[in-house]
Design goal:
single chain; alpha/beta; Fumarate Reductase Iron-sulfur Protein, Chain B, domain 2; Rossmann fold; 3 domains; four-stranded parallel sheet; globular
C-alpha cells in the first residue's frame, strides 16, 4: 500500500535522480522566503518518496509543502543531475486532487477559478467591471480581510474593451514568400486581457513569412489545470488542442505557460496508447514565438526604437522551456533599443499561474522583490512574455508607486517593424 493511486503517480526513477546536492536551494522562491527544507525542491521530492513508501493517506503536511511550490522550475535550470522536477510536481498534484486530502472549501475555490479564467466567453463580460474597479479601488475597503479576493482585485489588468472583443482573422496570409503554416494558440486569459499582444504576434509572424491560422477553438490548452493537478480537465483540453492544431507545420504560443504545457503533452499522455504518439508528435512542433522567429533569418526590416527595456524571464519560458537567449536576441536586433538585465533573473515574480490567487501573501512578497530588481535597472519599460507575469509586475509596481510599463516582446518587435512608437 502507498499513499498514491495508480493513475500516473510521480515516477520513482525520476525521484531517484535527485541526489539532494542542494544546488536548487538558492533558486527556489519559497526556500528563499522561509528557509525550510520541506519548502525546497529536494524536500518536496523526499515527501514524494514517502508517498510511495509509506502506507496511509496523503497527509496535510505533504499537501501544504506541495501547494507552497510555485512550479517555477528554477530548480530544473539549476540542477546538475537533470532532475525533471516539473513532471514530478505535476503528477503529484494530480494525486492530491484525486485524494481526500484537499478540503471541500479549497476544492470549490479552485474550481471557481478554473470555471472563470479558462473560459474567454465568461471573462469578456467582466472587462467593463474591471475597468470600473481600477478607478474605484474597492479592494481598499477590505482591509486585511478576504486576502484571496483582495489579491484578485489588485491584479486586475488595464484591459481595453476593444482589445478584449476584437477577433483575430482565422487566416492571416504571409507577407512575401511563405515559410509555412503556423497554428497560433490564442489562449484564454491572453485573448481577453491581452488581445493587442495576440494581434501584434500574428502581424509579426505574417511579416516574417508565416501564414498564420488562429482558430477560435479550443478555448484553452489546459495549462492552468495541468500545472495545478486537475489532469482530467487538462487531458480533455489537450485532446482538443492537438486535434485543432496538429495539421500545421508549427504550433506557436506567445504565453509561456501555454507553450510549456503543450510541450509537455507527451508526458501527460504517456499511458495512453491512442493519444500518446499524437501528443509526442504534436509537442515536437510547438514553439514559443520568439523561439520560432530566432530559428530563421529575419526578412522584415527593423526600424529604430529609442528605448531602455528590462527583460523579465517568465519561468515557464526560461526554466520549463529553456528559452532564454532567443527573446533577448530578437530585442537586441531592434536598432536603438537598449536591453537591461535585472538581478535575480531566475527568481519567480510570484504569479505562477494561479499561485498569486491561492497563496497571495508569499506571491506578493515575491512580486515586490521582482519589481525592486526591475526598477534598479533604470528602465521604465519591462518586456515579459507571459500574461500572469505582466499582471503581477504591473500590480506590484503600482503598489510601490513605481512607473513600469509592461509589454510583450512581440509588441516591441511589431512597433519596430511598423516604424512607430509602442
Amino acid at each position: 500500500m502507498t499513499a498514491f493511486d495508480d493513475i500516473r503517480p510521480p515516477e520513482p526513477e525520476l525521484i531517484d535522480a535527485c541526489v539532494h546536492c542542494g544546488f536548487c536551494l538558492p533558486t527556489c522562491p519559497t526556500y528563499l522566503l522561509w528557509g525550510e527544507e520541506m519548502d525546497s525542491p529536494r524536500g518536496r521530492i523526499l515527501l514524494m518518496r514517502a508517498g510511495h513508501e509509506e502506507a496511509g493517506p496523503i497527509t496535510p503536511a505533504q499537501v501544504e509543502a506541495w501547494d507552497n511550490c510555485l512550479g517555477c522550475m528554477a530548480c530544473v535550470t539549476a540542477c546538475p543531475s537533470g532532475v525533471q522536477y516539473h513532471k514530478l510536481i505535476e503528477d503529484t498534484r494530480g494525486q492530491v486532487e484525486r485524494s481526500e486530502a484537499r478540503t471541500r472549501t479549497e476544492r470549490l475555490r479552485r474550481r471557481a477559478i478554473f470555471a472563470l479564467f479558462t473560459h474567454p466567453g465568461r471573462l469578456r463580460p467582466l472587462v467593463p467591471l474591471v475597468a470600473l474597479q481600477r478607478r474605484l479601488h474597492p479592494e481598499r475597503l477590505l482591509g486585511d480581510r478576504l486576502p484571496r479576493v483582495r489579491a484578485m482585485m489588485r491584479l486586475a489588468p488595464r484591459a481595453g474593451l476593444l482589445a478584449a472583443v476584437q477577433q483575430l482573422p482565422e487566416v492571416t496570409p504571409a507577407r512575401g514568400p511563405r515559410r509555412g503554416t503556423a497554428g497560433f494558440l490564442q489562449g484564454c486569459v491572453q485573448r481577453v486581457f491581452f488581445g493587442d499582444v495576440n494581434a501584434a504576434t500574428v502581424a509579426v509572424l505574417a511579416a516574417e513569412g508565416w501564414e498564420v491560422h488562429a482558430p477560435r477553438h479550443p478555448r484553452c490548452c489546459g495549462a492552468l489545470q495541468l500545472h495545478t493537478g486537475d489532469d482530467g480537465e487538462a487531458r480533455e483540453l489537450a485532446r482538443r488542442t492537438i486535434a485543432a492544431f496538429e495539421s500545421y507545420d508549427v504550433v506557436v504560443a506567445n504565453a509561456a505557460g501555454c507553450g510549456s504545457a503543450m510541450k509537455d503533452y507527451g508526458h501527460l499522455f504517456r499511458d495512453d496508447p491512442a493519444w500518446g504518439p499524437r501528443a509526442e508528435a504534436f509537442a515536437a512542433r510547438v514553439r514559443d514565438v520568439s523561439e520560432l522567429l530566432a530559428e530563421h533569418e529575419p526578412v522584415a526590416p527593423r526600424r529604430p526604437l529609442d528605448l531602455s527595456v528590462a527583460y523579465h524571464d517568465a519561468c515557464h519560458l526560461a526554466h520549463a522551456q529553456g528559452v532564454r537567449a532567443q527573446p533577448r536576441a530578437l530585442l537586441r536586433g531592434i536598432p536603438g533599443l537598449e536591453l537591461r538585465e535585472p538581478a535575480e533573473w531566475e527568481i519567480c515574480c510570484g504569479s505562477a499561474g494561479v499561485y498569486n490567487l491561492l497563496k497571495p501573501e508569499p506571491a506578493a512578497e515575491l512580486g515586490r522583490r521582482k519589481v525592486a530588481n526591475l526598477v534598479a535597472t533604470g528602465a521604465r519599460v519591462v518586456a515579459a512574455a507571459n500574461p500572469g507575469c505582466a499582471l503581477q509586475i504591473a500590480a506590484h509596481a503600482a503598489d510601490l508607486g513605481q512607473e513600469l510599463r509592461v509589454v510583450h516582446p512581440m509588441e516591441l518587435l511589431h512597433a519596430s517593424i511598423e516604424g512607430r512608437t509602442p
